[in-house]
Specification:
about 325 residues, alpha/beta, Nucleotidyltransferase, domain 5, 2 domains, 12 helices
């Protein structure tokens, strides 16, 4: 099919924007065949009467663009009209066809949620990365982050989301949910994800964040006492949990104290990798607040976000190791 004027104009432009570059990277690193394969059995059949559904890969691309830019359904539809880069990524030529609307994207999201397909997408991405040798499985870092939810009661029901709860961090209270993750200690990629209400203690989720093959587990001071919990007593792992800040400050200025401080510094340098996926999700993908009502919908979105974050981090990890090799 002959390219339209708008496509030719986009292809001929001399400068690539940061959005162009970012979407080109997503294009290159996404295992499209694997992702469409897990969704296809649940996607509406193109046969039969009525208007045929929009192509699966096109809807998947629209959904990925939505997640990577932190957009609502309506804002994603608008972005297709406003941004040539996003239209090119999704595969829409406005000179020939209309863009999928917000309602179509909403139905696609509901399809993913209904059949737990975002978790399947997360697993398919990790299987793809595992084939490339990026999950080394000897060690796991566990951590959790708070994701805020609207505390207002000015809504139709006149009350806050019952799935969300308040949690105290430092001297401040936060209302929302938690994303608990298990991260490969070598590559910094997320292999396990659990979504809970905000008041759930980090240490209670530890065992569920392990894949079972690790020999070492790293956690911050919030995981103090994890080795004494009944469900963890028989686990064949070595626990590396940070001292509480007050304990570290109280270390004596002796050889033993300096050695303990060095060990804490070493453990902290390993745990730092767990912040990378949080950074991608919260800062690059702009996901700092729960977008939907209910824990299930928001956890479903987190599987997509952390799956795509793994792709972004894997690209950086591969590039870094390629430069070292050369």
């Amino acid at each position: 099919m002959q390219a339209s004027f708008s496509e030719l104009e986009y292809a001929a432009k001399k400068k690539q924007t940061r959005r162009d570059i970012f979407l080109n990277q997503i294009e290159q690193i996404t295992p499209w065949a694997s992702l469409t394969q897990v969704i296809a059995p649940h996607y509406p059949n193109t046969g039969g009467r009525g208007r045929p559904p929009i192509g699966l890969e096109r809807m998947l691309r629209m959904y990925i663009a939505q997640q990577c830019f932190g957009l609502s359904d309506e804002a994603t539809e608008d972005a297709l009209y406003d941004s040539q880069a996003i239209r090119h990524f999704v595969g829409i030529d406005m000179g020939r066809e209309a863009a999928p609307d917000a309602t179509t994207l909403l139905k696609f999201r509901h399809l993913l949620e209904e059949h737990q397909l975002t978790e399947s997408i997360f697993n398919a991405i990790n299987a793809h990365l595992s084939e490339k040798g990026l999950f080394l499985r000897e060690g796991t870092i566990v951590d959790a982050t708070l994701i805020a939810a609207p505390p207002s009661t000015k809504n139709k029901e006149g009350k806050r989301d019952s799935d969300m709860h308040s949690s105290k961090k430092g001297n401040q209270w936060h209302f929302g949910m938690k994303a608990h993750i298990g991260v490969d200690a070598k590559s910094g990629l997320v292999h396990t994800l659990i979504g809970t209400a905000g008041h759930v203690s980090d240490v209670t989720q530890t065992q569920a964040l392990l894949h079972g093959d690790e020999t070492d587990v790293f956690g911050d001071a919030g995981y103090q006492g994890v080795e004494k919990r009944e469900e963890n007593l028989e686990l064949p792992v070595t626990w590396h949990v940070a001292m509480r800040p007050s304990q570290r400050r109280a270390l004596p200025k002796t050889t033993e104290g300096e050695w303990l401080a060095y060990l804490e510094h070493t453990k902290a340098s390993i745990r730092a990798k767990v912040e990378h996926p949080f950074h991608v999700v919260k800062n690059l993908f702009r996901h700092r607040k729960a977008r939907y009502k209910g824990l299930l919908k928001n956890t479903a979105q987190l599987f997509s976000l952390f799956g795509f974050a793994n792709l972004v981090l894997a690209r950086r990890w591969l590039d870094a190791h390629t430069q070292v090799a050369t």
